[in-house]
Amino acid sequence: MPAITPTNNATNPNALGADVARMPKSRFSSMSSEDFMKIIFTELQSQDPFKPNDSSAMLQQLNSIRSIESDVALTDNLKTIVFQNQLSSAGGLIGKRIAGLNADSQRVGGVVKSVARSDNEVALVLDTGWTIPMNNVEYIDDGGASGTGTGTGSGSGSGNP
Fold first, then answer.
1. What is the pLDDT of residues 79-134, one digit of tens each?
2. In terms of residue numbers, what domain contains 108?
3. 23 and 57 belong to one structural domain
4. Strand blocks (E) in the chain
5. For residue 7, is it within any domain?
């Protein structure tokens, strides 16, 4: 029966409980769901089939695994939705004047000519040659399309606001 070996090189199995109690909480919060599932599966593989664990404890563990898998799938889906939303928003900025920080933290600006994707990040390519990550946009000007700019055209209005 394989044993789960502690990562802190403790040789006294009774001291493990004390070590776990003294561990900073960030160590547990930094454990991924995959790490947790590996621990659960190792425990399931290590138990004696003639002396199984309590069935209610087993059901709780299985429910924990299902919950973690569901959370992982939900997180992945939400990341995809957020990325698609960001990509769509970036596309709506084409033709608008923006300003913000480029990847080197330099303040740059220009008119958005295109949108680029790099891994899971969306960036705006400007007519000045600069690229600004979507998260670093600080200023957006629609060029007076909202009616607040100074227009030079003349003509008669229809009376509608």
1. 989 889 988 999 999 999 999 999 899 999 999 999 998 777 899 999 999 999 99
2. 93-141
3. yes
4. 97-101, 107-118, 121-126, 131-133, 137-141
5. no
